[in-house]
Amino acid sequence: MTEAPSVAKSPPGLDFTFDESVSEWNIPGPQWLKLNEKTWDGLASGALVFDDKDRILLVQRAPNDSMPNLWEIPGGAVDDDDPSVLYGCARELWEEAGLVARHVKHVIPDGFNGKPGAVFTNRTGKIFWCKFSFEVDVIDTREVKLDPNEHQDFVWATEEEVINQAIGERKIPLANSLIVNILREGFQLRRSGKETKAEAAAGDS
């Protein structure tokens, strides 16, 4: 842990921008469900935040919470009164990690047939959610501040460390297969984006 966690305060204005590719989610969750004729009980979101070394932010669940001590990305339920699904993602990022979203880049194709959205249930298997995860640029990656009621620690992990679920000798067991898939697709999408930019730059030279 690079600094002692502290509770995040009330969110700032969350005045972020977003790519056109994610504009579909710039509406409230209930409206998105209705427009897409989905009968899930709700939507959830996750934020993939990378630093300038292409390491991703992982947070460790609190010891007294469900899935204790396991690792995940910041995220949670999109509230019905959130102005949009994207806002819900930015809000959860602030509440869980104290980071302020600057720009939502793209959605992660982590669902069925390579489409965005991973469906999961509650413990009883009776309530269905769909989680959309987005790569999010933040104002300052150095400002991580955790809510100790939800998370106890954080790390910045490389793709190899995520695959191995370990940083050196320290184990960082991921919460579930859903998180494993989100991270795999997130790293791949980020890598593809960098390759595309490099090819474009080479073509312009």
Automatic annotation (TrEMBL):
Highest taxon of the lineage: Eukaryota
Annotated ranges, domain Nudix hydrolase: 40-180
Pfam families: NUDIX
Gene3D superfamilies per the UniProt record, alphabetical: Nucleoside Triphosphate Pyrophosphohydrolase (3.90.79.10)
Official protein name in the record: Nudix hydrolase domain-containing protein
Species: Cylindrodendrum hubeiense
